[in-house]
Fold this protein.
Amino acid sequence: MEKFKNYINGEWVAPKSGEYFKNISPANINDVIGEFPFSGQEDVNDAVKAARAAFKLWKSIPAPKRGELMKNVGDILVRRKKEIARCMTREMGKPTFETEGDVQEAIDTAYYAASETRRLFGQTAPSEMPNKVNLTFRVPIGVVGVITAFNFPLAVPSWKIIPAIAAGNTVVYKPSKDAPHAGVLFAEVMEEAGIPKGVFNVLLGKGSMGDMIVKHPDVNVIGFTGSTEIGCKIAEIGGRLNKKVSLEMGGKNAQIIMNDANLELALNGAVWGAFGTTGQRCTATSRLIIQSGVYDKFIEMIKEKAVSLKIGDGLKPDTEMGPLVHEASLKNVEKYCEIAKKEGGRLICGGERATGKDLDNGYFWKPTIFADVTDKMTLFNEEVFGPVLSITKCETLDEAIALQNHSAYGLSAAIYTNNINDAFKAVDEIESGLTYVNGPTIGAEAHMPFGGTKGTGNGHREGGWTAFDIFTEWKTVYIDYSNQLQRAQIDNN
Ligand code: UN1
């Protein structure tokens, strides 16, 4: 069985602890992908030390030169797209058309960052005093710790790692324990692209090791995607240690469907939003809010489509929905379905494991829909991270928006309507970082700000130009060419 290594200071190294963990395929638990380092404090210390040492040199390289290496990263990903996608499908389950999309998102991020390195603009401003000029520069911060989830093994880490490095920082990256192979592949790509040693380091391991990265005194910035529970803990530690922390956490995203909507379009959006990635996206559609005139009709339409989805091993070309990532996730989904039944949700379809010859060795769950869910019920309020969709009836647009906003989270939202006034009212009043009109809650593009309000985030936006706000600080510079002492707020009064 293949034994994988950490990537520290440009070398592939075994963990100091000598300990490893096995990672299996969620589509077939007998398929063992390999043994991955169970890294500990000594490995974290080595990686942070390498990243700190590399920072000095890396930040001094002109940004457009760093950008050329980001372009290399994009080119290599283009070349290896299919192969990397298959590895990711094998270890985390989503079908290959989705993992190829995941690699594509990283490619887009790399090419975008490459061009952005020529646009890391500062400002010039007039001084209060004569013969003096005021300027600002964006400067890198130092060592960035990146901790991510399994569901987008390449795209989501790339949103953090690529702009962080392009801006002149160095990175210590901990991939999810459920997608460690993707972390190894990311390091291979960076190595081939010519990223100097120590600039990018990958440590494989479990949650405890992420904690060590967060607490390490020489890590300046943390970029995290994962659960709200862990994210809030990281924020606490970051607050105590005065670190910059960017958090991307849970969602409970709703799609509103108005009476005048194009129902076929709304149907395709809802099915893709709810069951794409087996519902394991922070942007997944987990609630439908449907106006009463089309409520019953739409439930029939979505039931028919949901039960016909082809569930299976994501490596098979006809699979539309893969397994859940692990057994704990399956149990969690089962728990939420039981609660929904007890609290009075009307089960429309699913609500149980998907079984069969090719499914019994994996963590497969049927696409599940509960109707007549009210805002008091658990399913309306808590993130499930699985293929479970709740449906709620509303009478008016105001009620729909109030229901959509009745959530501790604020990542993504969608409205399907052909009424332009209603669409803009929804855009104005919905409390979320992302809002879609006549499109599903999933499908953010790499060059646009990504992030959420309320319990989803802490005000930062990944993706696009806004990612550079996370990974840079402003330096303000005053240049006085008057050849005399000019005292601000005193001599210019
Ligand atoms: C996530 O689920 O963590 O918009 C990210 C989308 C994807 C990214 C999802 N492009 O659904």
In short: The first strand starts at residue 6 and ends at 8. Residues 94 and 322 are 5 Å apart (CA to CA). The pocket of 2-aminohexanedioic acid is lined by residues 105, 151-152, 156, 225, 281-283, 442-444 (CB under 6 Å). The chain has a mean pLDDT of 97.
